[in-house]
Specification:
Helix 2 crosses helix 3 and helix 9 packs parallel to helix 10. The protein folds into three domains: about 80 residues, lambda repressor-like DNA-binding domains (434 Repressor (Amino-terminal Domain), Orthogonal Bundle); about 120 residues, Rossmann fold, CATH 3.40.50; about 130 residues, Rossmann fold (3-Layer(aba) Sandwich), CATH 3.40.50. About 45% of the residues lie in helices and about 15% in strands. It is built from 13 helices and twelve strands. The strands form three sheets. The protein has a six-stranded parallel sheet, with helices on both faces.
């Protein structure tokens, strides 16, 4: 009885050892040389197959992919980065993912980066002031470049990135004088805001108001400038101005102040949709105003909520997909050639809906 128990234990121990050996074999990293042998191609052909943009015949590529699938081969991105001196990582820094515009922008950027064979590393700042610290942290990841979708970024940090020879592209924001960046990409805010002014003026609005986002940010300043210039071309002046911090709550407070005036405005242009939706709600529920009969409202961004039947908000559509594509292309160009700083403004489209006449 004792002997049987001992043999059973020995048999079990041997089985465990064999299983561990098999597991170790399965865990072993398959090399590109093994794939090349199975596919009957050179090792360089395997490398080209897994290098985005590399030239390789479709028939050869399919043989390599079939062999890779059969062996369970996966390219070693870390090893490749050591050879190329590039990590293949692109940092994306945002400060307000609660804003629907930035959520869409992050998605578009991630898709663009991945389609070019790189991997996005997304850092989210809880508040705009935390962006600088995140940018420093990104340096430790040895990212090939950084895309920043944030209203605030200090001169000190952009100089830090320049000293590290890391390209930095700003999105939805213009670089300030003295900032050292590779380039910036944003909507043509001035021309877009002028379209709203044109719409208000030609539909009989006489006392237009503007609700800014954050003071002293290029996006809000450009939209304000374009709106005022557009009104001026029609002989109109800005009747009132307020600030809503690009948030729904901020938009509510700004709308209450504007509509509570004795000579209240008959049209409100908000620097984003979140504030415009709040203005519509306040005008209807708290002041009993008919929209657009007594008050016209327009926003900026063409978010999903703006198209809801309850609002049907007139707004401006930024071409987010193109913005993301241009930003990533600018970054790619800066990595491969001597690249001069570039500024790109992308045309917008006016979306007329039920909140304007």
């Amino acid at each position: 009885m004792h002997t049987c128990a001992t043999l059973a234990s020995l048999h079990y121990a041997v089985k465990l050892a064999i299983d561990e050996m098999m597991d170790e074999e399965r865990r072993r990293w398959i090399t590109s040389l093994e794939v090349a042998r199975l596919a009957g191609v050179s090792r360089s052909a395997v490398s080209r197959c897994f290098t985005p943009g590399a030239s390789i015949a479709e028939r050869t590529k399919q043989r390599v992919l079939n062999a890779a699938d059969q062996l369970g081969y996966r390219p070693n991105a870390i090893a490749r980065s050591l050879n190329t001196q590039r990590s293949g990582l692109v940092g994306v820094v945002v400060a307000d993912v609660g804003n629907p515009f930035y959520a869409r922008l992050i998605e578009a950027l991630a898709i663009e980066i991945q389609e070019r064979g790189r991997a996005p590393v997304v850092f989210v700042a809880k508040e705009a002031g935390a962006t600088d610290a995140l940018l420093r942290e990104l340096l430790s990841f040895q990212v090939d470049g950084v895309l920043v979708a944030s209203a605030t970024l200090s001169l000190r940090v952009t100089q830090l990135y320049r000293s590290a020879e890391t390209p930095i592209i700003l999105l939805d924001r213009m670089a300030s004088d003295g900032e050292v960046v590779t380039g910036d990409v944003s909507a043509d805010n001035v021309a877009a805001a002028a379209m709203i002014a044109e719409l208000f003026a030609t539909t009989g609005c006489l006392r237009p108001a503007f609700v800014a986002g954050l003071e002293n940010t290029s996006t809000s300043l450009e939209r304000a400038a374009g709106f005022v210039a557009g009104l001026d071309r029609h002989g109109l002046k800005l009747a009132a101005r307020d600030v809503g911090a690009y948030t729904y709550l901020g938009g509510q407070a700004a709308a209450r102040r504007l509509l509570g005036k004795r000579d209240r405005p008959d049209a409100i242009f908000c620097a984003n949709d979140e504030m415009a939706l709040a203005a519509v709600d306040v005008a209807r529920s708290e002041f009993g105003l008919r929209i657009p009969g007594e008050l016209c409202v327009a926003g900026f961004d063409n978010t999903v909520s703006s198209a809801l039947a309850a609002y049907s908000l007139t707004t401006v559509d930024q071409d987010i997909e193109r913005m993301a594509g241009e930003a990533v292309s600018m970054l790619e160009a800066s990595l491969s050639t001597s690249f001069a700083a570039e500024r790109l403004r992308i045309p917008c489209r006016l979306i007329r809906r039920a909140t304007t006449r």
